């Protein structure tokens, strides 16, 4: 069963109500020659196949969006991609936290007028 937005667009294109989409061989196309992907399992499969396989390398949001938008279009694609990448367990486990060195304390000792010796202990 097609999602309601997709079905409405198909009907509007068939009736000549909108021209920014078109039908070719029963498929709806939009924005250039990109196939319009209806809401449902196909979108999820495209997200998974573009992000998860070892050959894909778990791309970030920008790269994944570039890969998908070459051939496909759907409303809120960017939001879907961002959510998919953000919730990818492999990506979350792979992230390393980078901490700045923080100075814990410093000791300064005056040797003579205008001369100081300082020792700073930092961690990080």
From TrEMBL:
Coiled-coil blocks: none
Record PANTHER family: PROTEIN CBG26694, PROTEIN NYNRIN-LIKE
Superkingdom in the source lineage: Eukaryota
Protein name: Integrase zinc-binding domain-containing protein
Integrase zinc-binding domain segment(s): 41-96
InterPro entries found in the cross-reference section: Integrase_H2C2 (IPR041588), Retrovirus_Pol_polyprotein (IPR050951)
Entries under Gene3D superfamilies matching the protein: 1.10.340.70
Pfam entry (one): Integrase_H2C2
Biological source species: Dorcoceras hygrometricum
